[in-house]
Amino acid sequence: AQSVTQLDSQVPVFEEAPVELRCNYSSSVSVYLFWYVQYPNQGLQLLLKYLSGSTLVKSINGFEAEFNKSQTSFHLRKPSVHISDTAEYFCAVSQPSGSRLTFGEGTQLTVNP
Amino acid sequence: GAGVSQSPRYKVAKRGQDVALRCDPISGHVSLFWYQQALGQGPEFLTYFQNEAQLDKSGLPSDRFFAERPEGSVSTLKIQRTQQEDSAVYLCASSLRRDRNEQFFGPGTRLTVL
Protein backbone atom coordinates (compact mmCIF):
# COMPACT_ATOMS: atom_id res chain seq x y z
CA ALA A 1 0.00 0.00 0.00
CA GLN A 2 1.11 3.55 -0.60
CA SER A 3 -0.04 6.93 0.63
CA VAL A 4 0.74 10.60 0.12
CA THR A 5 0.57 13.41 2.65
CA GLN A 6 0.52 17.05 1.67
CA LEU A 7 1.21 18.92 4.85
CA ASP A 8 -0.36 22.24 3.92
CA SER A 9 -3.90 22.57 2.59
CA GLN A 10 -3.49 26.26 1.79
CA VAL A 11 -0.40 28.36 1.09
CA PRO A 12 -0.87 32.11 0.57
CA VAL A 13 2.16 34.05 -0.69
CA PHE A 14 2.93 37.39 -2.23
CA GLU A 15 3.98 37.75 -5.84
CA GLU A 16 7.72 37.27 -6.46
CA ALA A 17 8.18 35.50 -3.10
CA PRO A 18 9.63 31.97 -2.92
CA VAL A 19 7.33 29.06 -2.14
CA GLU A 20 7.64 25.44 -1.02
CA LEU A 21 4.77 22.95 -1.15
CA ARG A 22 5.51 19.91 0.97
CA CYS A 23 4.83 16.30 0.05
CA ASN A 24 5.69 13.12 1.93
CA TYR A 25 4.91 9.61 0.80
CA SER A 26 4.77 6.15 2.28
CA SER A 27 5.49 3.00 0.31
CA SER A 28 7.06 -0.38 0.93
CA VAL A 29 8.53 -0.49 -2.57
CA SER A 30 10.22 1.92 -4.95
CA VAL A 31 7.99 4.60 -6.40
CA TYR A 32 7.54 7.11 -9.17
CA LEU A 33 6.60 10.62 -7.99
CA PHE A 34 4.56 13.35 -9.67
CA TRP A 35 3.28 16.86 -9.18
CA TYR A 36 0.06 17.81 -10.97
CA VAL A 37 -1.51 21.29 -11.14
CA GLN A 38 -5.21 22.00 -11.45
CA TYR A 39 -6.46 25.41 -12.54
CA PRO A 40 -10.11 26.31 -11.88
CA ASN A 41 -12.54 24.37 -14.07
CA GLN A 42 -9.70 22.56 -15.81
CA GLY A 43 -8.28 19.05 -15.69
CA LEU A 44 -5.12 18.01 -13.95
CA GLN A 45 -1.91 18.86 -15.80
CA LEU A 46 1.40 17.15 -15.19
CA LEU A 47 3.91 19.65 -13.81
CA LEU A 48 6.93 17.39 -13.31
CA LYS A 49 7.85 13.81 -12.51
CA TYR A 50 10.59 11.70 -10.99
CA LEU A 51 11.06 8.22 -12.43
CA SER A 52 14.78 7.58 -11.96
CA GLY A 53 18.18 9.25 -12.33
CA SER A 54 18.80 12.77 -11.06
CA THR A 55 16.83 13.43 -7.91
CA LEU A 56 16.23 17.08 -8.89
CA VAL A 57 13.61 17.54 -11.58
CA LYS A 58 12.46 20.80 -13.14
CA SER A 59 9.44 22.09 -15.04
CA ILE A 60 9.45 24.52 -17.92
CA ASN A 61 7.81 27.28 -15.87
CA GLY A 62 10.36 27.48 -13.07
CA PHE A 63 9.14 24.87 -10.57
CA GLU A 64 11.47 22.17 -9.29
CA ALA A 65 11.18 19.21 -6.93
CA GLU A 66 13.74 17.01 -5.26
CA PHE A 67 13.29 13.36 -4.46
CA ASN A 68 14.68 12.59 -1.00
CA LYS A 69 14.53 8.86 -0.38
CA SER A 70 15.75 8.98 3.21
CA GLN A 71 13.07 11.50 4.17
CA THR A 72 10.48 10.03 1.77
CA SER A 73 9.75 13.50 0.48
CA PHE A 74 9.20 15.21 -2.87
CA HIS A 75 8.75 18.90 -2.03
CA LEU A 76 7.88 21.39 -4.78
CA ARG A 77 9.68 24.74 -4.88
CA LYS A 78 9.74 27.92 -6.92
CA PRO A 79 12.09 30.82 -6.17
CA SER A 80 9.72 33.54 -7.37
CA VAL A 81 5.99 33.01 -7.94
CA HIS A 82 3.59 34.81 -10.27
CA ILE A 83 -0.09 35.57 -9.96
CA SER A 84 -0.70 32.99 -12.68
CA ASP A 85 0.71 30.23 -10.45
CA THR A 86 -2.45 30.40 -8.34
CA ALA A 87 -3.92 26.89 -8.53
CA GLU A 88 -4.36 23.61 -6.66
CA TYR A 89 -1.27 21.41 -6.61
CA PHE A 90 -1.41 17.64 -6.13
CA CYS A 91 1.45 15.32 -5.27
CA ALA A 92 1.02 11.73 -6.50
CA VAL A 93 2.85 8.42 -6.36
CA SER A 94 2.72 5.21 -8.35
CA GLN A 95 4.62 1.96 -8.35
CA PRO A 96 6.83 1.17 -11.34
CA SER A 97 5.01 -2.12 -11.77
CA GLY A 98 1.59 -0.63 -11.21
CA SER A 99 -0.61 1.82 -13.01
CA ARG A 100 -2.80 3.67 -10.57
CA LEU A 101 -1.83 7.05 -9.17
CA THR A 102 -2.31 7.70 -5.45
CA PHE A 103 -2.84 11.41 -4.78
CA GLY A 104 -2.45 13.63 -1.78
CA GLU A 105 -5.30 15.89 -0.73
CA GLY A 106 -3.88 18.89 -2.53
CA THR A 107 -2.43 22.28 -1.63
CA GLN A 108 -4.16 25.48 -2.73
CA LEU A 109 -1.48 28.00 -3.68
CA THR A 110 -2.77 31.57 -3.76
CA VAL A 111 -0.42 34.27 -5.03
CA ASN A 112 -1.42 37.76 -3.97
CA PRO A 113 -0.25 41.03 -5.56
CA GLY B 1 -3.77 18.06 -30.75
CA ALA B 2 -6.96 16.92 -29.07
CA GLY B 3 -6.74 15.99 -25.43
CA VAL B 4 -8.96 13.79 -23.29
CA SER B 5 -12.58 14.89 -23.48
CA GLN B 6 -15.42 14.06 -21.13
CA SER B 7 -19.16 14.53 -21.37
CA PRO B 8 -21.30 15.84 -19.94
CA ARG B 9 -19.25 18.41 -18.05
CA TYR B 10 -22.03 18.77 -15.48
CA LYS B 11 -24.75 16.34 -14.48
CA VAL B 12 -27.50 16.74 -11.92
CA ALA B 13 -29.37 13.60 -10.96
CA LYS B 14 -32.12 12.82 -8.53
CA ARG B 15 -31.30 10.18 -5.96
CA GLY B 16 -32.05 6.77 -7.38
CA GLN B 17 -31.48 7.70 -11.02
CA ASP B 18 -28.92 5.98 -13.22
CA VAL B 19 -26.21 8.08 -14.90
CA ALA B 20 -23.65 7.45 -17.64
CA LEU B 21 -20.44 9.44 -17.98
CA ARG B 22 -18.41 9.34 -21.18
CA CYS B 23 -14.67 9.59 -21.75
CA ASP B 24 -12.89 10.02 -25.09
CA PRO B 25 -9.18 9.34 -24.57
CA ILE B 26 -6.33 10.67 -26.66
CA SER B 27 -6.19 8.77 -29.94
CA GLY B 28 -3.79 5.84 -29.74
CA HIS B 29 -3.63 5.76 -25.96
CA VAL B 30 -3.93 2.19 -24.78
CA SER B 31 -4.47 2.77 -21.07
CA LEU B 32 -7.52 4.50 -19.60
CA PHE B 33 -8.22 5.36 -15.97
CA TRP B 34 -11.19 6.64 -13.99
CA TYR B 35 -10.80 8.62 -10.76
CA GLN B 36 -13.31 10.12 -8.33
CA GLN B 37 -12.56 13.50 -6.74
CA ALA B 38 -14.74 14.52 -3.84
CA LEU B 39 -14.93 18.19 -2.86
CA GLY B 40 -11.73 19.31 -1.19
CA GLN B 41 -10.01 15.96 -1.72
CA GLY B 42 -7.45 14.51 -4.06
CA PRO B 43 -8.55 12.17 -6.85
CA GLU B 44 -9.06 8.53 -5.88
CA PHE B 45 -8.55 5.64 -8.28
CA LEU B 46 -11.64 3.77 -9.47
CA THR B 47 -10.67 1.50 -12.35
CA TYR B 48 -8.15 0.89 -15.16
CA PHE B 49 -8.40 -0.45 -18.71
CA GLN B 50 -5.74 -1.63 -21.09
CA ASN B 51 -7.44 -1.59 -24.49
CA GLU B 52 -10.83 -3.19 -23.86
CA ALA B 53 -9.69 -5.26 -20.88
CA GLN B 54 -10.55 -3.99 -17.42
CA LEU B 55 -7.43 -4.98 -15.53
CA ASP B 56 -8.16 -3.35 -12.19
CA LYS B 57 -11.52 -2.40 -10.73
CA SER B 58 -10.54 -2.55 -7.10
CA GLY B 59 -11.32 1.12 -6.53
CA LEU B 60 -14.99 0.96 -7.49
CA PRO B 61 -16.85 1.81 -4.26
CA SER B 62 -19.83 -0.47 -4.76
CA ASP B 63 -21.53 -2.77 -7.24
CA ARG B 64 -23.60 0.21 -8.36
CA PHE B 65 -20.54 1.42 -10.26
CA PHE B 66 -19.76 -0.17 -13.61
CA ALA B 67 -17.26 0.81 -16.32
CA GLU B 68 -16.75 -0.44 -19.84
CA ARG B 69 -14.55 0.19 -22.85
CA PRO B 70 -15.91 -2.27 -25.42
CA GLU B 71 -13.80 -1.26 -28.43
CA GLY B 72 -10.70 -0.14 -26.60
CA SER B 73 -11.30 3.55 -27.17
CA VAL B 74 -14.28 5.41 -25.66
CA SER B 75 -15.17 4.46 -22.11
CA THR B 76 -18.36 4.86 -20.11
CA LEU B 77 -18.68 4.95 -16.35
CA LYS B 78 -22.18 4.05 -15.23
CA ILE B 79 -23.59 4.61 -11.77
CA GLN B 80 -26.86 2.90 -10.94
CA ARG B 81 -29.32 4.10 -8.32
CA THR B 82 -27.26 7.19 -7.50
CA GLN B 83 -26.86 8.27 -3.89
CA GLN B 84 -25.91 11.65 -2.45
CA GLU B 85 -22.47 10.34 -1.52
CA ASP B 86 -21.80 9.76 -5.23
CA SER B 87 -21.63 13.54 -5.74
CA ALA B 88 -18.10 14.27 -6.94
CA VAL B 89 -16.04 15.13 -9.99
CA TYR B 90 -15.28 12.07 -12.09
CA LEU B 91 -11.96 12.32 -13.91
CA CYS B 92 -10.81 10.26 -16.85
CA ALA B 93 -7.15 9.92 -17.83
CA SER B 94 -5.31 8.11 -20.63
CA SER B 95 -1.72 7.18 -21.28
CA LEU B 96 0.47 5.51 -23.89
CA ARG B 97 1.34 1.94 -23.09
CA ARG B 98 5.05 2.48 -23.23
CA ASP B 99 4.97 5.60 -21.04
CA ARG B 100 1.98 4.71 -18.98
CA ASN B 101 3.18 6.57 -15.94
CA GLU B 102 2.32 9.92 -17.57
CA GLN B 103 -1.43 10.16 -17.45
CA PHE B 104 -3.26 12.91 -19.33
CA PHE B 105 -6.45 14.03 -17.64
CA GLY B 106 -9.74 15.26 -19.02
CA PRO B 107 -11.65 18.22 -17.52
CA GLY B 108 -13.93 15.93 -15.52
CA THR B 109 -17.67 15.52 -15.09
CA ARG B 110 -19.16 17.16 -12.01
CA LEU B 111 -21.99 14.96 -10.73
CA THR B 112 -24.46 16.37 -8.23
CA VAL B 113 -27.00 14.00 -6.74
CA LEU B 114 -29.98 15.71 -5.12
Core attributes:
heterodimer, A: 113 residues, mainly beta, six-stranded mixed beta sheet, four-stranded antiparallel beta sheet, B: 114 residues, seven-stranded mixed beta sheet, 11 strands, globular
Protein described:
The complex is a heterodimer of chains A (113) and B (114). The mean pLDDT of chain A is 92. In chain A, strands 2, 5, 6, 10, 11 and 12 form a six-stranded mixed sheet that branches. In chain A, strands 3-9-8-7 form a four-stranded antiparallel sheet, with no helix packed on it. A two-stranded antiparallel sheet of chain A has the order 1-4. Chain A has no helices and twelve strands. With 113 residues, chain A is mostly beta strands. The radius of gyration of chain A is 14 Å and the shape is globular. In chain A, a hairpin with a 7-residue loop joins strand 10 and strand 11. Chain B has 114 residues and is mainly β. Chain B is built from no helices and eleven strands. In chain B, a hairpin with a 6-residue loop joins strand 4 (31-37) and strand 5 (44-50). Chain B is globular, with a radius of gyration of 13 Å. Chain B starts with a strand and ends with a strand. The interface between A and B is medium-sized, with 25 and 26 residues.
